[in-house]
Amino acid sequence: MLANRTTNKPTKPDWIRVKAPTSKEFLNTHELIRKHKLNTVCEEAACPNIGECWQKGHATVMILGSVCTRACRFCNIATGIPDKLDPHEPENLANAISQLNLAHVVITSVDRDDLDDGGASHFVECIDKIRAKAPSTTIEILTPDFLRKDGAVEKIVKARPDVYNHNIETVPSLYQKIRPGARYFHSLNLLHSVKKLNPHIFTKSGLMVGLGETKQEVLQVMDDLRAAEVDFITIGQYLQPTPAHAALERFVTPEEFEYYERIAKFKGFLMVSASPLTRSSYHAGDDFIKLRSAREQLLKNE
């Protein structure tokens, strides 16, 4: 990939460019989110797919405040002293989901190392409120790693989300540089423990590429995730949020993403989403339907 002569950064290719959001549907979703005082990872993490997703009424809600206790080098979410928990957040979230008439919702959060259970109880309350207010909505959660928070994952598994997502983010050799507060094998164990506690819950994990990893390292992460019985892998292009964040090493080509998708399917994942603009919750509702169908087909073939 050619570099920009003035900054020595990789030049953004056409396949990574997106249009600015302007549609009426986008503005309606924005208004509902503001009305219910919800945070979204779409905004906080500057997701490139916000226009497409909000136009369809899809948003990934971020609970437990908007300030994170970690300082991952890839993430655009603010780091510092975290917000006080909003006791009304689960109810407001359930009301918003009911009004949006969502078939599928994705709930994520900042890391809350300051809380005894890392915020697991708050996740559970949100799941319970949504089930009471919008019983037909399927629920996908994208959680932190709950490092040194014994019993946190068990609490959430008991609440039976339809999909439990936790992102591995990058390859092990880059953890100290990119994700210094986390531990690669802890994240793998978290995902595996979900399956061991309740094999009916779909598990999902995501990986960024373009940070300096090798193809062989990506394939090894796939093997590790399959050993942890993960059902669904997402692979997307890392985009540097600001000059202060981890440097972008290169733009991965669409052909390479197609290669990763073929290999991941061969390795046994029920679902694979691999493209430059893929993010953890991109097309999550449609993908959940496909994921459920893939499991049903697998069971028929056994």
Backbone CA Rg: 19 Å
Q: Which outline best applies?
A: globular
Structural class: alpha/beta
Q: Indicate the low-confidence ranges by residue numbers.
A: 1-6
Looking at CATH, the homologous superfamily is: Aldolase class I
Bin the strand percentage. 5-15%
Q: Class in CATH?
A: Alpha Beta
Q: Total domains, how many?
A: 1
**CATH arch. level architecture:** Alpha-Beta Barrel
Largest sheet: 8 strands, mixed
Descriptive notes:
This protein has 302 residues and is an alpha/beta fold. The protein has a single domain (20-301), classed as TIM Barrel (Alpha-Beta Barrel). It is built from eleven helices and ten strands. It has helices spanning 24-35, 41-44, 50-55, 89-100, 120-133, 152-158, 175-178, 184-197, 215-227, 254-266, 284-301, and strands at residues 39-40, 60-63, 67-68, 78-79, 104-109, 138-142, 163-165, 202-209, 232-237, 271-274. The strands form two sheets. An eight-stranded mixed beta sheet has the order 1-2-5-6-7-8-9-10, with helices on both faces. A two-stranded parallel ribbon has the order 3-4. Helix 4 (89-100) runs parallel beside helix 5 (120-133). The chain is globular and about 45 Å long. The protein starts with 23 loop residues before the first helix and ends with a helix. Residues 1-6 have low confidence and may be disordered. Pathway: Protein modification; protein lipoylation via endogenous pathway; protein N(6)-(lipoyl)lysine from octanoyl-[acyl-carrier-protein]: step 2/2. Pfam families: Radical_SAM. [4Fe-4S] cluster 2 binds at residues 68, 72, 75. Its cofactor is [4Fe-4S] cluster. It is found in: Cytoplasm.
